[in-house]
Amino acid sequence: MSNLFDLTGKVAIITGSTKGIGKASAIELVRHGARVTISSRDQEMCDAVAAEINAKFGAGKAIGVAASISRKEQLQNLVDKTRAAFGPIDVLVCNAASNPYYGPQADITDEQFRKVLDNNIVSNHWLVAMVAPEMRARRSGSIILISSIGGLRGTPIIGAYAISKAADMQLARNLAHEFGPDDVRVNCIAPGLVQTDFARALWEDEEMVARRNATTPLRRIGQPIEIAGAVVYLAGAASSFMTGQTIVIDGGVTI
User: Fold this and answer.
1) What is the value of pTM for the model shown?
2) Which CATH number is 11-249 given?
3) Catalytically annotated residue among 101, 102, 161, 233
4) Are 176 and 143 in contact (CB under 8 A)?
5) What is the DSSP string of 138-184?
6) Domain segments of the chain as ranges
7) Using CB atoms within 10 A as the burial measure, which of 51, 133, 173, 192 is most buried?
8) Is 161 a catalytic residue?
9) Across-strand partners of 145?
């Protein structure tokens, strides 16, 4: 453990990694020595980001595999192709999520509600089930769920999304109990408002951002790179005694 953040030889899958927090995290994992699989629904975008990483850090550092988190067979293909290219998986970052609805909980349709729960909770369960057995057999692995501070507070705008993110925190706690005896760790990261395409509907509202900034101790919203550091931390030896926890990165909003 001479270098707590050395990820040399580690293999990581990151969903939703063609932009935003996922892409920033992929770049930083590779910077610290890992090989990564870039994934989103668009194969061309996956290939483009993988090519960008390989051009910057050297050939063979990244591949792109398209997968919809709503399709179990596509997630299994993602895992299988990663193993074929790089070998056993050491790090899983469940970053991709859906939020098709903004507004009062009473007005959300059944289809929208199910989509949020399926994509933000069930898909994580699927992916974990696909990679955890080999991690447990090797007695080594880190699973990282990207949650949200929405899972810690009430909201009149993104209720279903917040419910799903609270569930991810509980999923991490449950799995930490199950996998802990085999030295496999499961943790969450709960970002506040970050300037990503996913959160565009929030941060493009200038009045809303001004109100948020006025009550945020750091007086600004976050950037994707500011979440990526926590992913590197949770992926490696620096966090070897941490499991079942949620790291809040929100500029101080929840205090």
Assistant:
1) 0.95
2) 3.40.50.720
3) 161
4) no
5) HT-EEEEEE--GGGGS--SSBHHHHHHHHHHHHHHHHHHHHHGGGTE
6) 11-249
7) 192
8) yes
9) 94, 188
